[in-house]
C-alpha cells in the first residue's frame, strides 16, 4: 500500500510473493519478488531483519539505535527513507493501526 502515510507507528511487512533470502552462491542477502531481486547492504539487512509484520517503524528504529549506539533521530530518518523506497518499489506493504 504505497499510498498510505508512513508514521512511526506504521508496521511494514513483506507482501505475498516477496521474501528476504541469503544467496549462498554469491554470499549476499537479497529481497526476492516475482521476476526481480534487490541486493541489500549492511544497513538494509539490519532493517529488514526486523521487518516481521509486527514491529513498528518506531520499534525498528529504537532497536537499531541501541544496537549501533547511534542517535535515534538519525536512525529513524534513515529507516523511514529506506522503507519508503521499498514500499514505493513494491517490496513492502505498510499497515497503519490508528497511528
What is the structure about, briefly put?
The protein has 99 residues and is an alpha+beta fold. Helices cover 36% and strands 22% of the residues. The protein contains three helices and five strands.
The global form is: globular
- Largest sheet data: 3 strands, antiparallel
Structural class: alpha+beta
Gap from first CA to last CA: 15 Å
Instruction: Flag low-confidence runs.
Output: none
Number of helices: 3
Whole-number average pLDDT?
92
Strand order of the largest sheet: 2-3-4
The fraction of residues assigned to DSSP E strands is 15-25%
3D architecture notes:
The protein is an alpha+beta fold. The protein is built from three helices and five strands. The protein has helices at 42-48, 57-68, 72-88, and strands spanning 11-13, 19-23, 28-33, 36-40, 93-95. It has a three-stranded antiparallel β-sheet. Strands 1-5 form a two-stranded antiparallel sheet. Strand 2 (19-23) and strand 3 (28-33) form a beta hairpin. The two termini are 15 Å apart.
Chain-wise SSE layout:
Blueprint: E1 11-13, E2 19-23, E3 28-33, E4 36-40, H1 42-48, H2 57-68, H3 72-88, E5 93-95
Antiparallel strand pairs: 1-5, 2-3, 3-4
Helix pairs in contact: 2-3
Feature tags:
3 helices; two-stranded antiparallel ribbon; 99 residues; alpha+beta
Amino acid at each position: 500500500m504505497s499510498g498510505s502515510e508512513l508514521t512511526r507507528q506504521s508496521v511494514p511487512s513483506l507482501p505475498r510473493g516477496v521474501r528476504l533470502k541469503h544467496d549462498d552462491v554469491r554470499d549476499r542477502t537479497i529481497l526476492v519478488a516475482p521476476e526481480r531481486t534487490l541486493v541489500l547492504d549492511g544497513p538494509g539487512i539490519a532493517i529488514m531483519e526486523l521487518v516481521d509484520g509486527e514491529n513498528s517503524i518506531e520499534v525498528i528504529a529504537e532497536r537499531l539505535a541501541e544496537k549501533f549506539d547511534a542517535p535515534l533521530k538519525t536512525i529513524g530518518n534513515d529507516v523511514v527513507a529506506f522503507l519508503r523506497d521499498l514500499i514505493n518499489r513494491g517490496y513492502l506493504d505498510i499497515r497503519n493501526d490508528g497511528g
